[in-house]
Design a protein that fits this description.
single chain, 119 residues, alpha/beta, Histidine-containing Protein, Chain: A, 4-stranded mixed sheet, 3 helices, 4 strands, 17% strand
Length: 119
């Protein structure tokens, strides 16, 4: 192999290395991908939703006017949905009022149904 061929090979290698260094520098200066931060934000929101659900269930359980045996709570970004059944219309209204009194609740969708209790 001649000196000229070696010089050409080293020149090519040097050029490729320079391009690779430039590409790495460009990647380092680019902003971080938003996917991990979006995931972290949703994870935080999920935890906040769970804590709000827990607070609403606690408020409903404290309210003697509401039988929470067949009531479930769902929360998303402050909007709370009450699902399930109660035995009287007064319990539906009391559940709405108790839920509205919980800090962090922005709206209440009361989807409770009235179901007669078997005797």
């Amino acid at each position: 192999m001649g000196i000229q061929k070696l010089a050409a090979i080293f020149g090519t290698i040097a050029a490729l290395a320079a391009l690779d260094v430039q590409a790495l520098a460009a990647d380092a200066s680019a902003p971080a991908a938003s996917a991990p931060s979006a995931w972290a934000a949703r994870k935080g929101a999920h935890k906040a939703d769970h804590l709000l659900e827990k607070a609403v269930r606690k408020a409903l359980a404290k309210d003697k006017a509401v039988d929470v045996t067949h009531v479930s709570v769902r929360a998303r970004n402050g909007a709370v949905t009450l699902l399930g059944s109660v035995s009287k219309q007064g319990q539906v209204e009391a559940a709405t009022q108790a839920t509205q009194g919980v800090a962090g609740v922005t709206s209440v969708d009361n989807a409770l149904t009235i179901k007669a209790v078997a005797q």
